[in-house]
Amino acid sequence: MTAEDDQMTPAEYAFSEALGHVRNATSALLGEEDQSSDSLLLGIAGLDLQGQFGDIWPVWIDDDRAAAESLAEAERLLGGVIDQVPLGLWAALTSLRRQVSDGDR
């Protein structure tokens, strides 16, 4: 954690860390070697999802998780502060995670 992180509420940090995982998932989807229209559409959905976080600054997440794992982690983090998560954001995250998980990405 940095000095800036000390000024964040637990909910703000959960949003920030979740956004970091969504960014990793989006990058994984858009960077697949065997690029299909399906993975491109899912990657675009990831970009749209990132936009729903508004002015939240993402935490940089350095990991090798698959897109589905990153989205599951984002969902877990936001689930801890679910009472502060806008319904549209939660629905979009859950939908994208399910679609990506169904394709085993």
Notable traits:
4 helices, 105 residues, mainly alpha
Task: Describe the fold and architecture.
The protein is mostly helical and 105 residues long. The protein has one domain. It is built from 4 helices and no strands. Helix 2 runs antiparallel to helix 4 (87-102). The longest helix has 21 residues, at 10-30. The model has no long low-confidence stretch (mean pLDDT 90).
Helices and strands in order:
Blueprint: H1 10-30, H2 37-51, H3 67-79, H4 87-102
Helix pairs in contact: 1-2, 1-3, 2-4, 3-4
In short:
With 105 residues, this protein is mainly alpha-helical. The chain has helices spanning 10-30, 37-51, 67-79, 87-102.
Rg, Cα atoms, Å: 13 Å
Major sheet characteristics: none
Which structural class best describes the helix and strand composition? mainly alpha
Percent helix range: 55-70%
- Counting DSSP E segments of at least 2 residues, the number of strands comes to 0
Strand content: under 5%
- The total of helices stands at 4
- Mean pLDDT rating: 90
Q: Based on the structure, what is the oligomeric state of the protein chains?
A: single chain
Shape: globular
Low-confidence stretches: none
First and last CA, distance: 30 Å
- Our count of domains comes out at 1
Order of helices and strands: HHHH
